[in-house]
Amino acid sequence: MLHTPKPRTLRRLAALLLLAAATLHGTPAAAAGADDPGWTAEPASADGATARRPSFYLAGPAGTVLEDRLTLSNTGDRERTVTLRGGDAYNTPDGAFAVRPAAASPGAGSWISFGAAATVTLPPHTRAVVPFTVTVPPASPPGDHPAAVVAAEGGHEAGVRVDLRVSGPALAALTVEEVSVRGHGAATAVAYTLVNRGNVALTPALALHAEGGLGGGSGPRTARALPVELLPGRRVTLTEPWPGAPAFGRVALRLTATAPGAAPATATTTAWFVPRGSAAWAGAGLVLLGTGALFLVRAARRGPPRARPPEPAGGPSGPAASEPELTGASR
Questions:
Q1: Which one of 25, 171, 194, 248 has the largest count of C-beta atoms within 10 Å of its C-beta?
Q2: Please, which residues have CB within 8 angstroms of residue 196's CB and are 6 or more apart in sequence?
Q3: Are residues 74 and 127 in contact, defined by beta-carbon separation less than 8 angstroms?
Q4: Closest CA to 209 of 248, 249, 257, 175
């Protein structure tokens, strides 16, 4: 008896045939593999250590030369040629960690050197440990100088963070600026700018305190750690969700930012909340109220109306009497 394959079985056979064809022609079997460069870069483990380091940490006085090692691993089946360099690290406007190009890295990125090992050729399935130095200039100011080691090959780049601290007084200083309220209802958010005015990296937290308004949450909110590390001299613009904002009225808002070692920084602003459906009527009412108040103020300044002086005894045919000018009175 001849057995007919089920449709599901036919689909599985077709998938296996396609996979075999892809393997024969050297095409990756999974689309996710297309993003894999086939090599990795990471800090070399210390002698005898089993834990992997997420980044480099180097510290020393100005004028010193520091050393560390980078591990490159070729996980693919073909040879790789990787180039290595240093780069300055910075915060993007939204707080992300980024690395500048070599030509735009006059800071700590230019202190990093791989010497003759700036270009490394890796045979398939091999690993290389590459030493590098960080030469701190004698006049370098104390504090954190963020940088990164950048490995590049075939249009793909991988950056490994370098936390470099120059010995000396550490100053943690933070300010909050440019506070504003955006959105309505559950989409209300508070926009603000944090500025690191010290010489060390900061991990800030933010607390929000609101007073006034009706139909919403006022009072203090617990400080929340922010998902950003603010590098020295950098500023970032962030938004804090405020789904419990008042539905109506004037609200006084105070933001307090804190960070380890830094004095609390505060900034204030006020905001009016008006229900969307009542915005036009509320605006018209405010205009009318303002117009009426202005009219009353002007009337109070004029005082009561003055009596018109009597006509001379000669009547209308007599000589004309001069009428005094009333400054500010309507004619």
A1: 194
A2: 173, 174, 202, 230, 231, 232, 233, 234, 235
A3: yes
A4: 257
| Location of structure tokens 């090992």 | 117
Q: How far apart, in whole angstroms, are the C-alpha atoms of residue 204 and residue 225?
A: 6
Q: What is the distance between the alpha carbons of residues 292 and 90, in angstroms, rounded to a whole number?
A: 55
Secondary structure (DSSP) of 204-243? -EEEEEEEEEESS--EE---EE-S--BPTT-EEEEEEE-T
Segment 272-312, tens digit of pLDDT: 877 665 444 444 355 445 545 555 556 556 655 555 555 44
- Find out whether 164 and 219 touch, Cβ atoms under 8 Å: no
Residue-wise pLDDT for 110-121, tens only, equals: 999 999 999 999
- Domains of the chain, each with CATH number or no CATH: 38-166 (2.60.40.10), 174-275 (2.60.40.10)
Global pTM reads 0.69
The rounded distance, in Å, linking the Cα atoms of 181 and 240 is: 10
| Residue 11: its H or E element | helix 7-24
